[in-house]
Design a protein that fits this description.
The chain is of the alpha/beta class. It has helices at residues 21-33, 44-48, 70-79, 95-103, 117-127, and strands spanning 13-17, 37-41, 58-62, 86-90, 107-110. The protein has a single domain (13-127), classed as 3-Layer(aba) Sandwich (Rossmann fold), CATH 3.40.50.
């Protein structure tokens, strides 16, 4: 028998933005196993230029992107009326980043992503 039953997300659509192909693939795979539909983007511009960006149920963004950082991407998305819940992933977030993210209503999950931390956070955000 497996662990406790998890609520199925009923095919919610997620976006993942990460410049590292291994990270993108890993996140896509693990989130699809959780039952989500996942679109991946290798840079901030890909998501910003996607005509369906406002339709995502949640967006997972790596803080360290090449063009501009994840927090800046969130601000630009909000300027375009994209208000999906965001999870920022980063290694060893500074106090400054944590305060800025908290002030903007953005969740941070520290890398490496362990156990079900990301899936649990997504589920929590989507239940709000």
């Amino acid at each position: 028998m497996t662990g406790p039953a998890r609520l199925q997300p009923s095919k919610r659509m997620l976006a993942v933005v990460a410049d590292d192909p291994a990270v993108r693939g890993s996140l896509q795979f693990s989130l699809e196993i959780e039952g989500y539909e996942v679109r991946v983007f290798d840079d901030a511009g890909g998501l910003l230029n996607d005509p369906c960006a406002a339709g995502f149920d949640s967006i997972i963004i790596d803080q360290n992107l090449p063009t501009f950082d994840g927090l800046e991407l969130v601000m630009r998305l909000r300027d375009r009326s994209v208000f999906a819940p965001v999870i920022l992933t980063t290694s060893q977030p500074s106090g400054f980043l944590a305060r800025r993210a908290r002030g903007a209503g953005i969740s941070i999950i520290e890398k490496p992503l362990l156990d079900n931390a990301l899936a649990d956070k997504i589920q929590s955000l989507l239940q709000r």
